[in-house]
Predict the structure.
Amino acid sequence: MLKSLSRLKAFVLDLLFPLECLGCGCEGCWLCPDCSRRLKFSGGEKIYNLKTPALDKIFIAGDYDDALLADMIKKFKYHFLAALGKPLADFLALYWSGQLVLSRLNNPAAMADNSIIIPDGSIIIPVPLSKKRERWRGFNQAEILAREFAANFSYPLSNGLKRIKHRRAQASLNEAERLENVKGAFAYAGDNLTGRTVILIDDVATTGATLNEAALTLRARGAAKVYGLVLAKG
Ligand SMILES: [Zn+2]
């Protein structure tokens, strides 16, 4: 029953979204190499007002004003196109590689604004969904991103962070409500984090409340540094 349901889902998705590049429409893949090179990285003079005191730094890879990137993220998240996780994670990995190069160019001891320090033993952790939401969507988009991202580097991946309470979706809430809504939402039961650096991955950040709360939970379990890494500021 379940198998035929998932086959039906794949069939319907295929009708709605035939496999073609979301940028130029050429057939055979979700994002062709030409269009993937056109995806816009964040940066420039944009200021992202995120309140994430529990994070050492938040890294925002892309620009949500880039229509192609925004379209990919929306289809990934809301249209259940799990296959978009791979090209999106590749984009994240390309951005992260750039940050690593920058960090080596900068004085690592000084932690200059653009620099990051990723010691051995760093660990990648995706922001979890509640069980209920994950069942509804069929997958956790942050987990797919984190898994595909991890494949590009040597960091281990942990799925030890869990939602312990089902909360209202953040999208309908204002900033103060978001903070209240995620309070106490997470628990961690995974590899020992004592003294380790965590790269916390989510698809988008809006106010940063979810990432911040997740980071608080990880710090309480001994994480020395927590970096947030997202595709874009939504
Ligand atoms: Zn294309």
User: Anything to note?
Assistant: The two ends are 37 Å apart (CA to CA). Strands lie at 57-60, 123-126, 161-163, 186-188, 197-205, 225-233. Residues 85-105 form the longest helix (21 residues). The pocket of zinc ion is lined by residues 21, 23-24, 26, 32, 34-35 (CB under 6 Å).
